[in-house]
Amino acid sequence: MRLDLAAAGFHVAPPQLLTDEEQGGVAIYIDDGQVVVDWLPHARLDRAALASAGNGGTDDEDAVRYYAVRNAMDTALGAIPAGFRYSTRSRPDSLFGHIIGQAPTKPRARP
After folding, report:
1. What is the pLDDT of residues 54-82, one digit of tens each?
2. Pairing between strand 34-40 and 88-90?
3. Are the beta carbons of 91 and 36 closer than 8 angstroms?
4. Are strands 12-13 and 25-31 parallel, antiparallel or unpaired?
């Protein structure tokens, strides 16, 4: 999955928390024995959205940008792996991220 997303042009981020200098990107990690693909916005946008949420600012520009990016990338991260023939399903316990199933193996050509 990591190589297929890199082939699609994504920078695959580490699954740890991002520092100020780090960009966001696709995160691939194991959760409850399942492969999960999710999107991490740049730490700057993430912090700004969290700060505005703490103030109750649902119409805050940072929060609007954050959710616009998260929603768009969540849609893409459901569609792109499916294009590579992986099975995908939304995470039942989260607003974002997809559980990825094994891609089908190619049938062997008959001699």
Report:
1. 665 556 787 788 888 888 999 999 999 99
2. unpaired
3. yes
4. parallel
- Mapped onto helix, strand or coil, the DSSP state of residue 111 is coil
Q: Please state, in angstroms and as integers, the Cα–Cα distance from residue 17 to each residue in 72, 75, 101, following that order.
A: 21, 22, 25
Record the tokens describing residue 95, joined without a space.
Answer: 């607003």
Please report the DSSP string for 24-65 in residue order.
-EEEEEEETTEEEEEEE--HHHHHHHHHHHHTT-TT-HHHHH
- pLDDT < 50 positions in the chain: none
Would the CA dihedral through 23, 85, 67, 17 be positive or negative? negative
| Nearest Cα to Cα of residue 96 among 61, 46, 59 | 46
Q: What is the pLDDT of residue 1?
A: 85
